[in-house]
Amino acid sequence: MSGADTYHFMRELADSWGLLAMMIVFVMLSLWPFRPGAKSRNEEAANLIFKDENDG
């Protein structure tokens, strides 16, 4: 297999399976904060900026 053949094979692999893999990772990371067990951690992160706030 020559260098050009290797390049074209890797290019076709990246265009098809690489794109599919990136799409799957994107969808998984996009849905990760919305999983049922993440509610308490999301609320904690949302209120973190008020941690050191004094009302007096």
Structure description:
With about 55 residues, the chain is mainly alpha-helical. It has helices at about 5-30, 40-45.
What does this entry show, briefly?
The protein is mostly helical and 56 residues long. The chain has helices at 3-31, 39-46.
Sheet-strand content, in percent, reads under 5%
* Overall pLDDT level: 88
The SSE string, one letter per element, is: HH
Radius of gyration, in angstroms, nearest whole number: 22 Å
> Which residues sit in consecutive blocks of at least 5 with pLDDT less than 50?
none
- General form: elongated
**What percentage of residues falls in helices of 4 or more residues?**
55-70%
Number of E-state strands: 0
Number of domains: 1
What is the CA–CA distance across the termini?
A: 75 Å
Classification by helices and strands: mainly alpha
Q: How would you sum up the major sheet?
A: none
Individual helix count: 2
Give the tags:
56 residues; mainly alpha; 2 helices; 0% strand
Describe the protein's topology.
Elements: H1 3-31, H2 39-46
